[in-house]
From TrEMBL:
<comment type="similarity">
    <text>Belongs to the metallo-dependent hydrolases superfamily.</text>
</comment>
<keyword id="KW-0378">Hydrolase</keyword>
<protein>
    <submittedName>
        <fullName>Predicted metal-dependent hydrolase, TIM-barrel fold</fullName>
    </submittedName>
</protein>
<dbReference type="GO" id="GO:0016787">
    <property type="term" value="F:hydrolase activity"/>
</dbReference>
<dbReference type="InterPro" id="IPR032466">
    <property type="entry name" value="Metal_Hydrolase"/>
</dbReference>
<feature type="domain" description="Amidohydrolase-related">
    <location>
        <begin position="7"/>
        <end position="299"/>
    </location>
</feature>
<dbReference type="Pfam" id="PF04909">
    <property type="entry name" value="Amidohydro_2"/>
</dbReference>
<dbReference type="InterPro" id="IPR006680">
    <property type="entry name" value="Amidohydro-rel"/>
</dbReference>
<dbReference type="InterPro" id="IPR052350">
    <property type="entry name" value="Metallo-dep_Lactonases"/>
</dbReference>
Length: 299
């Protein structure tokens, strides 16, 4: 479908020679959700993305923070803004601040100096499994300082990218529904990591809880599993159910490249999504691949 205009609503870029990303440089992440990620420890720049995406009509992209040095978070936005001026991408930026930082508003002001700034992703502290106790300390979803920082996003006209395991979606909904002024998008299909009938049933409940909030959207992205290959058949039911829960007008496709490359190539992933979504009408396809992201990120 070469005429389909596509917005990639979530990808990453990094230059390991010029900039510092602790998780890619000298502080290995022992609990990375896809396991061994040593293949990601290489530069990934606009020319690399464009090579991966060749053959598709990618008209705009959204860069989501890539865990840049947390001692200088605004610098990532400044660097990306320079890349965009040179290479024409990304076209919008989701930056990072620690929401419990006493200087959160000063950092938000720094990000907002870029005309590409649209939102913030700041991962709260979460539990490792569905059955583990929910954290309630610093940087948890219940932390008063974290909640004050979240509220500040509305004053700067910023959206929020929610990236938590599915078992925290309902908990997050309790905060999100108090702030209609902050558009929210759930990352990575709500992370349906447990594909057992019981795991999917729990994922379904949490997805429905947060989808009841009309200003919450969903990224149909990153269906990779730690111990299984990416395939159309293993992901078809999850994608179609997520789409049914949120509706095409609140769903947006995203590549999550290069992390997703650990399990699937760009072409195979995007063609796989097009296969899964082949039953949609053309207006519905346009919503998922272009219109929802364009509206949400003000492209």
């Amino acid at each position: 479908m070469t005429d389909l205009k596509i917005v990639d609503s979530h990808h990453h870029l990094w230059d390991l020679e010029a900039n510092y990303y602790p998780w890619l440089s000298d502080r290995p992440e022992p609990h990375f959700f896809l396991g061994d990620y040593s293949a990601l420890k290489r530069n990934y720049l606009p020319e690399d993305y464009k090579r991966d995406a060749v053959g598709f009509n990618i008209v705009k992209t959204v860069h989501c923070e890539a865990e840049w040095d947390r001692d200088n978070q605004v610098a990532e936005t400044e660097w990306l803004t320079g890349l965009a001026a040179r290479d024409g991408m990304p076209n919008a930026i989701v930056g990072h601040v620690w929401l419990d930082d006493p200087d959160v508003e000063a950092k938000l002001e720094g990000h907002c100096r870029s005309p590409l700034m649209r939102g913030i992703r700041s991962k709260p502290v979460t539990s490792a499994t569905l059955d583990a106790p929910r954290p309630d300390g610093p940087r948890s979803l219940t932390d008063p300082a974290w909640r004050r920082g979240y509220e500040a996003l509305g004053r700067y006209g910023l959206s929020y990218d929610l990236r938590v395991p599915f078992w925290h979606l309902g908990e997050a909904a309790e905060l999100i529904e108090k702030h209609q002024e902050i558009p929210v998008v759930v990352n990575h299909t709500g992370f349906p990591w447990d594909r057992s009938p019981e795991g999917l049933a729990a994922w379904r409940v949490e997805m429905k809880r947060i989808a009841r909030i009309p200003w919450v959207h969903l990224k149909l992205s990153e269906l990779g599993l730690k111990d299984a290959p990416w395939s159309v058949e293993s992901n078809r039911a999850v994608v179609l159910e997520a789409l049914e829960i949120f509706g095409p007008e609140r769903c947006m496709w995203a590549s999550n490249f290069p992390p997703a490359s650990l399990r699937v190539g760009f072409r195979d992933q995007l063609e796989g999504f097009l296969d899964i979504l082949s039953g949609l009408t053309r207006p519905e396809l346009d919503a998922v691949f272009h219109d929802t992201a364009t509206r949400f990120y003000r492209l």
